[in-house]
Amino acid sequence: MAEPLRLKAKSASPGIASGPAFLAERPGAAPAPQTAGGYGALEMAIDISIGELERLAEGADPESRDIIDFQIEVLRDPSIAEATGARVEVDENVVFAWVATLDAYIGELETADEEQMRARAVDILDIKNRVLGALAGTPIADFPPGSVFVGKDMEPSRFLAHDWSKGGGIALFSGSTAGHVALLARAKAVPMVVGTGRFSAEDGDPVRVDGDAGAVVLQAGRMLIPPLVPTQAPAGDTQIESVELRTADGVPILISININDPAEIDSLDPATAGVGLMRSEFSIASIADAANEERQLAIYRRVLEQAGEKPVIIRMLDIGGDKPLVGLEDLPALDSGLRGTRLLLARPEIARVQARALLRATAFGGLSVMLPMVTFPDEIDRMREIFREEAEKLGRRSLLHRMPPIGMMVEVPAAALMLDTFGSAAFFSFGTNDLTQYLAATARDDLEADAGKTAPAVLRLIAQAVKLAAGKPVSICGDMAGDPHYLPGLLAAGLRHFSVAPARRPAIRSAITGFNADGTRAAGE
Ligand code: PEP
Ligand code: MG
């Protein structure tokens, strides 16, 4: 029998996984998700929604039938299509044109004198969201649980849609250890290697991903390899620990978790201070989701309710750059390379929907909102104004809401150097992933980039910025926070609040007790 072939790769997420290969690049293996662009897509989504409603009507009682018939009538109403079409003609994205048209209709109904009319508002809200659901398109095809994903690269949405509880891993021909899928894999403790170079394997061939050593092992001739090992939480994660954590010299330290997917909130145990970063962009698969206030509200509500009393920081959509949003490709804002808060300000219709969902979500827990990729202080002021205007609109509709504290990521060097000028930010959180990239003039997806060489510059910048924070709450949520190697430097820079991927929490907790708050090693360590 042929010897197994061991290919050297770079570890992107530790652990070992074995399973049958799933080749992502077979022709037709990964159908492109349906995009939400163009008026034709809206017409199709309306047709799909009418079909769904007709099916629902079949088994419905007479009262429900009346409601469904009314909804179908509205969907077929040419004046709705015309109003949406007119908005598209003045260059509005079709998804937001649909939302604006229906919101205007809902607004009229909500303020009608007759109670019967007011009661219809919710029926229109329902069809607005049904059509948005249809516009969001079919999800990307999943692959069998327990298999090893083999391909050139992997989309974050595909990672998030997959059930990793049955084990499995990822081997990418190219990819990056700093890319977003690598970050998701580390958070969920899914073994992953990148940079294997192209190799040939067939679907179902046994493959082993060695995320510890950085290798992929191919068993030639379909020879059996040991059964797949379901990914396990690192030992210690299940032990009951106290929230109280101190350095060796007694300075209190907070550890929060970063979540990328609402389901990860389940790993918030009693020893965790809260959620220091929820990357909301990973819950939004397309522009249709970005336009769907109710869907976003449901996601944030779930996270906040699960967190209970603990604080939760939800970051607004960090889209653009290396985080595309399906359906947004054609918009002028993207051509200029905008990302994060600047993109949201350039496309305020996206920010306004999210602002409303966040304002309403405050009813369900201790929510703070964080703005991504902030560069200049006026960006915070402009976003705050959007929140204020949307809060006023919610107030007019008697919808429960509250203004959350609004803080910012510190991940653009210009912002870090000028932190004392961000008077209206309620708190700061260092994003070392982007800070490293922009300090070293390297690309985040550059496999060869040596983050270690840039670390001293990043640490020096953080230490300066912490002094400029003027006593406001400061934390760190970039990947550096979850690497014990950088802990002394981060402590010395003055950081006391670390937000890390759930899988990194035990390692950081145990490392902290070995250091003093100034970053020196504790006596006897
Ligand atoms: C960062 O840049 O460090 C960060 C936390 O944001 P993201 O990784 O989502 O870009
Ligand atoms: Mg970032």
From TrEMBL:
InterPro entries documented for this protein: PEP-util_enz_mobile_dom, PEP-utilizing_PTS_enzyme, PEP_util_C, Phosphohistidine_dom_sf, PTS_EIN, PtsI_HPr-bd_sf, Pyrv/PenolPyrv_kinase-like_dom, Pyrv_kinase-like_dom_sf
Top-level lineage group: Bacteria
Pfam family of the protein (one): PEP-utilizers
Coiled-coil residue windows: none
Keyword hit for Isomerase: no
Residue span(s) of domain PEP-utilising enzyme mobile: 143-214
Cofactor(s) required, per the database record: Mg(2+)
UniProt keyword list: Kinase, Magnesium, Metal-binding, Transferase
Gene3D superfamilies named among the record's database cross-references: Phosphoenolpyruvate-binding domains, Phosphohistidine domain, PtsI, HPr-binding domain
Domain Phosphotransferase system enzyme I N-terminal, chain residue ranges per copy: 10-120
GO molecular function term, any single one: kinase activity
Residue ranges occupied by any PEP-utilising enzyme C-terminal domain in the UniProt entry: 239-513
Family that this chain belongs to: Belongs to the PEP-utilizing enzyme family.
Protein name per its UniProtKB record: Phosphoenolpyruvate protein kinase
Native source species: Rhizobium hidalgonense
